[in-house]
Design a protein that fits this description.
- The protein is 32% helix and 28% strand.
- A 5-stranded antiparallel β-sheet has the order 14-13-12-15-16, sandwiched between helices.
- Strand 4 and strand 5 form a beta hairpin.
- It folds into 3 domains: 92 residues, Rossmann fold (3-Layer(aba) Sandwich); 56 residues, Dna Ligase, domain 1, CATH 3.30.1490; 103 residues, ATP-grasp fold, B domain (D-amino Acid Aminotransferase, Chain A, domain 1).
- By secondary structure, the chain is α+β, with helices and mostly antiparallel strands.
Length: 298
Amino acid sequence: MKKTIAIFSSNPHAYAPRRFAEEARKKGFSAATFGYQEADLYFAAKGERKIFLKEKKITEPFWGAIFRSSRNPHHIFTPQRDCLLNFFLQQKTIVLNQIIYQKWPVLDKITEHLVLSQNKLPIAASWIFGSPSRLKEKIKLPAVLKFYLGSHGSRVFKIESSCKLEKILACFPAENLLVQEILPEGEDLRVIVLGGKAMGAMRKRAAPGKFVTNYSAGGSVSSYNLDSDQPAKILAEKTAKIFKADFCGIDLMKDAQGKWRVLEVNTDCQFEGFEKATGINVAQKVIEFLIKQKNMVE
């Protein structure tokens, strides 16, 4: 019987789950993709536990597991992911990013920037306010507002007027907004780090008239020679190490002085645009990394 790698996502038909499954099969594995909504879990006294996927009881441990986004729309599938993670670790299944999921089940943008600041990494100056009145009183426009939960460039706003600020505050609680100084906009860098080493980078540019640079939001991407930019490479690898991430995307942007700052840590790293821009087979490298990790513990 073939060893199976299970891939979980809130959207199992998305690019990343499909690519992981393709590359796993090329390596001789059986690959199964599941939506979190297809998982039912039972646990009772004396450690009794059962996993049902697509209403079928799982009787044999998976060789490996990859967890993708549990966010949509408000991290509603995080409990399912955390239970699955717990079950799989008991069964000695190799799990990508297991440490970061155990330490931060929900790594929101506010927690993320607090950890970056605690570790003295360069970030955009940031505020969180306990009331909308103080936010409106102290904010210096233009500024960037980020809702603490979000992905793919969603819920990130460039605020240039009091009118727009009022509209955002009518939709989002002030206490859940990360307020940041605005950096030179239009483009940033995505560095993908695997096993502590940067595998490459792409430059992301916002679409005309847009603020966010995400490929999924219509931004354009191109390859970036990371070997010629050691400060960016070192910063990305250091950031991934702090979060103990096996696999992540680190977004960097230059400040007015031309120094790199960390914009975001993406533990649910999307890589369709990255593979397109760089020609690097990200999915293959991730499967090879899991094989190496499994061999180290056996």
